[in-house]
UniProtKB/TrEMBL annotation:
EC number: 2.7.13.3
Top-rank lineage group of the source organism: Bacteria
Keyword list, A-Z: Phosphoprotein
The protein's enzyme class: transferase
Phosphoprotein is among the record's keywords: yes
Name of the protein in question: histidine kinase
Residue ranges annotated for the Histidine kinase domain, each copy included: 330-560
PANTHER family (UniProt xref): HISTIDINE KINASE, SENSOR HISTIDINE KINASE
PROSITE patterns for the chain: HIS_KIN, PAS
Amino acid sequence: MRQLCLAPHSRGKGPVSFRAKTPHIGIMLSPGLLYEEKRIEALDRHAILDTPPEREYDDVVQLAASLCGVPMALVSLVDRDRQWFKANVGLPGVSETERCISFCTFAIEREELFVVEDAREDARFATNPLVTGAPSLRFYAGAPLQSEDGFLLGTLCVLDSVPRKLTETQRRDLLALKRQVELLLRLRLKVKQTEARNQQLLESSGDAVLLLDEGGAVLELNPVAARLLGGEAGRFLGVPFETLVAPDERETVLRALREVRTHGSARVDNLGLRLHRGERVVMDVAASLQEVGSARRLLLVGHDLTERRRLERQSLQNDRLASMGALAAGIAHEINNPLAFVLSNLNFLHSWREDLERRLAELPGVPEQLQSVLGEAGEVLAESIEGCQRIRDIVRDMRFFSHSSDEAFSPVDVNASLDFALRMASPELKSTARLEKSLDEELPPVLASGGRLSQVFLNLIINAIQAMQPGGPRQHTLCVRTVREGECVRVDISDTGHGIAPEVLPRIFDPFFTTKPAGSGTGLGLSVSHALVEKMGGELRVHSELGRGTTFSLLLPQHARLAEPRPALAS
């Protein structure tokens, strides 16, 4: 079919004249330029141009051709410089023609039916190449298609290669069918508006949003959902939604999806989604049916409960720690008094034994066996005194640790605080690794909570010990170093353990995050340590290599730099 180009040659405010590049055709359009621009905008809003065939439109043109007794019928949409056929019967292989030779350009100048009974007898079309050449049009009847906001977008038209007239019944039928096409166009626009709302929800929602097809496979998901599921959005497209949840909850999800299809909505609380790394995120999910025409979509909006659960667990853990601290303080007090009596009596017995041994040595004929027994008694007493002194140190440490929650900031000796933490960890450390200490004896003090700083050191030391297990002093070393660095005091705690994977490293300070097996840790130690260091005005850094070990570096401002007193550290 011959293709012609449309060339506008008037851009004023009046009617727009279009001139074909072939000199024998001229077409004048009555709508003004402003109307034409808005009409094109309305057509574009429907997003229908150049879309694949759809059965609903094809059925309409088949019925129109049959009712009007003609071989050709079209749903023709008039674009800026072409007419494009959404549905076509009788013109195989033709998808569009130039607008400058179209009959439909005239049809959309009026709202009523536009009929040309014999194009060869009509001065407007007698020389039109569609009349003088293939398909040799003689008859045309076009019913303009009006958008919901009043713009004429194209036509439902019937055509023939012989002259003819429409009966009144055929006119009514053609107008009735064009109203069906208008309904399809309006329905399409509503679908697009629904899709736009869904897209806006996908992009702007702070919750996880997933759009599923009717079968439950993922069509789209927003960045929040992709982040919570732990991967790129493309990984989940086409994946059945039920495969993303924990196996023991899949039947619950399938039942909820069936309820959405039947009743239009459903809700699942505390739904556990399984991440690709094996972790689990918990959400409350609200689902609704998006149904416009034949399109059915399932919209899922999930509110992440993980952070709330973490905060609840952290609060519970803090309460437990506070209770344990109060219990430790009470136990320490109860132990301290009888321990003082025992230690005093042991020291008395030890002194009495030494005095007795001296007196017996001055006497002649003292049996050798008695001297041996007194020697053994001395060793027993010395060991008992040493054991009681260790108990006394533990009790002192318990009191020190339990009373730290209400301590105000004050000058703290970092080396002393570090030594305390090492003493606390000594039983576990000596069976795991050898200790190397390099402490700067001239370190200035820092302004901090002594108890909380020791808690930080203890957390880091225990983590280091656990990273080196299983092992022993021959295989592993714990290095502890203090040094002045600029106007800060720096503490390095290094282990020779398994190290931390690069993809895990950014999350190690997150509350409740842990790489340990279930039941082996709460995931609070590093999070609490990080928060405490920040409250003290310091910084906690980490460097790790897989298979080679990890170093945590704590930097705290020197006491001299802190001009203003700091408030008490909250428990």
